[in-house]
Amino acid sequence: MIGLECHVQLDTYSKLFCSCPTKPETEEPNSACCEICLGMPGSKPVLNKKALDYALKVALALNCKINEKFFFSRKTYFYPDMSKNFQITQYEIPIGSQGFIELSSGKKICIRRVHLEEDPAALVHESGLLSSSYCLVNYNRSGIPLIEIVTEPDMASPQEAREFLDQLTMILSYLDVFDFENGTLKADCNLSVVGNERAEIKNVTGKRNVEKALEFEAKRQLELVKQGKQIVRETRGFDEKNLSTKSLRKKETEEDYGYIFEGDLVAFELTKKKIDAIRKSLPELHSDKAKRLAKEFGISEYDAKVISGSKFLSDLFEEFAKASSAKTANFFVSGVFVSIAHYENKEPEEMAPRLNVSQLKELLALFEQNRINEKALKEAAIAHITKGKNPLDFIKENCLFKEASSGEVEKIVEKVLSANPKAVADLKAGNEKSLNFLVGLAMRESKGKAEPREIKRIIEEKTK
């Protein structure tokens, strides 16, 4: 039995309860914090309206029931990354509850709750080692807004957990509430063998790591059960290098956190008008978009699902489809670009800063005009995305243009000669400048595919 607690950093300008920036201009440690996010005596938190709107968007997109009245609580938290020794979060009444995400099999993974909370600070260990003799604390991260999405233990395999996260990140990309390039999405992974205690694997980053951590933990617990040993309720950490988990501490109970009402924040009440306005602002999500793309552009259902897998990909496809054709746009986005992203081990959204869309449109136009082949398109795209090379320059430098056949060149020359009788007459009269003029026109007509020497030879033969 697997359940996930997903912590998603919301892409707001300021922190959850103060005006400190979430993306400071300098990376200097402890330069983006104030008396509120440090919990100084007398400081008063104020809820970030944008963070609340984003949390509502996510809860509605996850089919949650919205609690019109809610409040914040203090969660006892005695660790150095929370200077006030408590975390402001939601416990008794979250923003949303009783939602679900549907997997490709049709199985629904129930969402227990969606709530807002502040992020702790960052612990910086000596040499990056958890076993180091000391650690430093950077409070720039303290107070950054998070939403926590808690599932029921409905997943029966690490693969189902991976697909759940795939679906969740798709939804987040469409809602535009998460910065895929700079934001963090971590999961606390809870796993138990039926009838036994559960173990929690804390702060696992990345979908692949979640899958690998759960695979190791499932094998570990099943082996203990097989040997007749007791499974201890504990918190474990994931070692990315060895793809294994290790014990960190005994697992706390809910009572250990000592939740109490956050007295520095008032209780909140959402109006039906507010909830309806957020619901109406929700974009077309991936499942609906896949159906529309297949119908509108005539691409296969499979390709439509791949493209609609992220808002960035679908927007890119529609922009390229308008500039060239749906067939070429589909080939590039679902084939070439997605393959490069997978090779780089990146989400498509993370590759966005590397793309010059206008230059890529020129590349696709060359392909549409049959001036380059698929191999040249792929090589130019790789050079552009991985090295920042202008695709057109790459094609020219590596001589990847298709050459026109002799028959094609001859037809082009005949067309140019027929359209320019005066220049032909001047050439026959001995004016060499007319020859250069006609060669230039033919080169333009061939879109650079023909060799100038070949054009010159054919013109001279036909004007004798």
Can you walk through the features of this model?
By secondary structure, this protein is α+β, with helices and mostly antiparallel strands. It is built from 15 helices and 16 strands. The longest helix has 20 residues, at 207-226.
Task: Describe the structure using short key phrases.
464 residues; alpha+beta; Arc Repressor Mutant, subunit A; 3 domains; 9-stranded mixed β-sheet; 3-stranded antiparallel β-sheet
Indicate the topology.
Blueprint: E1 2-9, H1 49-61, E2 65-66, E3 69-70, E4 73-76, E5 86-89, E6 96-102, E7 108-118, E8 122-125, E9 135-138, E10 145-151, H2 158-175, E11 185-191, E12 199-205, H3 207-226, E13 234-239, E14 244-250, E15 260-261, E16 268-269, H4 272-281, H5 286-297, H6 301-307, H7 311-323, H8 326-343, H9 357-368, H10 374-387, H11 391-397, H12 406-419, H13 421-428, H14 432-445, H15 452-462
Parallel strand pairs: 12-13
Antiparallel strand pairs: 1-10, 1-11, 2-6, 3-16, 4-5, 4-15, 6-7, 7-10, 8-9, 11-12, 13-14
Helix pairs in contact: 1-4, 2-3, 5-6, 7-8, 8-10, 9-10, 10-11, 12-14, 12-15, 13-14, 14-15
